[in-house]
Every structure is written in C-alpha cells, then in structure tokens.
Amino acid sequence: MLSLFRSPVYYFINKMEKEKVKPDTEKKQQPKSREEVVIAIKGLKKSFGKKDVLKDINLEVKKGENVVILGRSGTGKSVTIQCIVGLLKPDGGSLKVFGDEVADMNDKELKQLRIKIGFLFQSGALYDSMTVRENLEFPLTRILKIKDQNEIDKRVEEALDSVGLLDAIDKLPSDLSGGMRKRAGLARTIVVNPEIMLYDEPTTGLDPITSREISELILNIQKKFKTSSIIITHDMECARLAADRIVIMSDGEYIAEGSFDELHKSKDKIVASYFTDIL
Amino acid sequence: MAEEVIIPAWKRWFEEIGDQVGFFFKFFRNIFTGGFEWSEFVRQCYEIGYRSMMLVGITSFIMGVVLILQLRPTLITFGAASMLPKTLSVSFVREIGPVIIGIICAGKMASSIGAELGSMNVTEQLDAMEVSGANPLQYLVVTRILATTLMVPILSVLGDVIGLFGGFLALNIRDSISFKLYFTKVIASLDFSDFLPALVKTIFFGFAIGFVGCYKGFHSNKGTESVGIAANSAVVTASLWIFVIDAIAVQITSLLFYK
Q1: In a domain, B9, yes or no
Q2: A with B: how many residue pairs have Cβ under 8 Å apart?
C-alpha cells in the first residue's frame, strides 16, 4: 500500500507483473508440492473414552523424507501412525495418504493403501508359528499373489540380505534375539517394496550397538528403496542418525518442529529436556 | 488421569452378543471371499485333530470300561446282563460319547485357539497381518473354525469305536464274550436314528468350539494377563455351549425320531 503513495505508476506496473507471473509459478509449483507430500495430516483428533489422545495434529511428510516423532509415552505417537494405516479411525480432522482421505476408504482401497505402507512394530510382530522365510513369503504369496517360487526365493533372500539376516532364514522367531527379530520384521516389511515406512519405536529394548545398527538400517532403507518414513522413538541417537526432520509431541499436539540441530539449540523447556544428555 | 467410563453389565452383555453376531457374519463372508487357505486348514486339522487323538482315545477307552463296570451290577440285579453291549452302545453313541468328547475337545482346542490368537493379539501379530494387507480372519479364523467343525465329528466317531472296544475288554474281565458276538450285538442295537443325530450334533459342537476359541482370542485385551483370560473364557464358554447345543439337539431328535 505504501508503494501506491510513493509511486502510483511503479505500483501498477509491479502489480501487473506480479499478476502475470503468479499464475504461472502457481501452475508449476502446485502439482510439484502435491506430488511431494505423501502424508498430509490436518487437525487430526482421536479420543479414547473421555481422554483426548490426539487434539490437533498437523503434519506433512514429503517423498523420501524421514520424519522422527519424539514424545513421552502416552502422548499419542503410536495412535497417529495407527490412524495412518487405518487400524484406528480418527474422530476428526483430515488424514490423506497419497492424496486420498484414509477415513473415506472402503476395505479394498484400504488394502491397496496398506500394500504401499510398511509398518515395523515395536516387537517386530513376527508370526511365531512360521520360520523367518515363511514370514517373508507370507506377504508375497497372500498380498502380492506371486506364484513363481524362484521369484519369491529371490525377493526373500534379497530382503534378508539387506538387513544382514540371510543366515537366519530357516530359524523360528523364538530362536532369534530381540535385534534379529526387529531386523526380520524390517525385512518382512521391505520385501513388498513399500513407498512409506512407519517405525514404531524401532530401537526400544535394544543395546546401544544394535540400536545404532537398526538406525543405520533405517537410513539404508530410505536410500535404497527411496521410502518416506515416520519414525517414533525415544532414542535420541536414532533421531540424530535417521531424522531429516523432528517433530516433538506433547499432550496430543505437536509443540516443536525442526532439524536435530535446530531443536538441540531450542530454549524451550520441554524441547530442551529431550537433548539434556546430548553434547 | 482420564475418568474411566463404567458400562453397565447388561449393556456389556448385549454388546458382546452383538460383537459375536458380527464376528459370525464376518467369518461366513470370509469363507466365500478371496482364496481359501488350504495349507493352513490342513495344518490346523493336524494340530487340532490329529494331536487330540491320543487324549480322546484314552478318555473314551476309560469311559467305556467305567460304564460297563458301573452298569454290570445293576443289570445283573435285573437279570439283564446280556443287555450290557446294547445299553453301552446306545448310551455311548447317542449321548455320552459326543458330549464327553465335546467337553474334552473344548478343553483342548478352544483353550489352545484362544491362547494362540490372544498371544498373537498381545504381540501385535494380528495388527501386523492386518496392516500388511492380508486378511487375518481368512487366514486364522476361517481355517480354525472349519478345522474344528470337521475334526470334532471325526474324533467323536473314533472315540465311540474306542469306547465300545473299552467296554468289550471290561466285559471280559468278569464274563466271557467273543469279539464277534459283542460287536454284532452292538451294531444290531444301533439304529440310524442313534448315529446320525449324534454325528450332526458333534458338527455343531466343533463349530462352537472353534468359533468361541477364535472370538475370545481375537477380542482379547492387549495385556499378557488377557491371554490366560481368553483361554479360560474360551473353555468355559465352549463347554457351556456344548450343553446348550446338546439340550437343543435332544429336543429336535426326540421330535423327529422318537415320537
């Protein structure tokens, strides 16, 4: 407005130029940004009984990005990713994956979406009546409906090789250590080549060396399979290694967002409390 | 702390009935949709059926022996010792065999299914199956319910034969009767109306055992304690259902065959 008083001619020329340029840039940028965002959450709400677990969650995950969610236990981190795969239905807000609203999907659409999402559970969640090989074959034969045994063997061995667990191919989950179980669980999720990976506390209960190995594995998977990921963790080393961006959750809301270094320098009491042991 | 919502017991009961009806329809729909898991069905028949054979065999044998030892003095009092094979066969095939074997199967199968699915629920295996895009109902529930529905009648027939053989051995402790004469008397005393309703009844027993085991396991809570609760509740509910089904079956059989 000030420019109008300074130079009316300049103002009108500038305005015309802006109007000329604006639609073009919008046309170019809009599809690009739409394409890049794989998960878009706006105002997500979820309650259990009278407890509001998610109050107002807003999050965007871009293609190829690793987002780490930090937060105390019971703040609704796992609930968020369970809503993403349709295990829980949100009470309000919008949750779009690949541009489609998850809550509006029918069973068939939800099944199609789930094929594109890999979910690593805290315990690994291996089917304990099956060997590691059978665990990996399960999604290939039941979901991708692959019939060719050679192709199945090849994909199973490749996935196990990616997580360094080829030696344990014929072992039962009960014969594996906690770290091996998580790696086998990871192999089972990547065997179907998902586009999005959701990690629910991938390093919980593991020793520091194995935790680091899992964190490096998450990074390798991101590079190798070009996946976008949401990682829920309490492990700051995992967050430092794997995160492109960190969001901190408290009481059902996101209170801070940024890179590891940005949040490390934060003066906010709650944010700083996560970095107290980090030099 | 969030306030805990207290739901009245009657409302919870109705909710559970509603859940069970919903679960039944989901099971029924999943039999016909998608591919049938033959390999898992065969594995369950082996695990549930074949592995119960020893238990069913021993129990039926003992029941046959005990029944003859209990019946003999009474029938001798009435001078009807020759009626022992007939009395045993009719009572065993019609009622005692199916119900006892049903109760044993409820104890073994419903508890193992309830505990297995309950622990799969606790260790997030059911969720893992669901989020992978697979159908846990088709893979876990349909196969188990159909396996119990098929195997309980087979075990019941096997149990009848072993129980009657036990009766033959028990009869030969005090008296002497040839194998051929004993089984001729047994078969002659059995009618189509003794065998068929009992067999049909065991199909329903098998279904109830599988259904209750799967329902309790599938709907268990997430704590380790709930695995035990699921197994226990599966046995109790399945046993109760066996008596309820038996009572209904006896009424229907009486109306149809013994007017």
Answers
A1: no
A2: 57
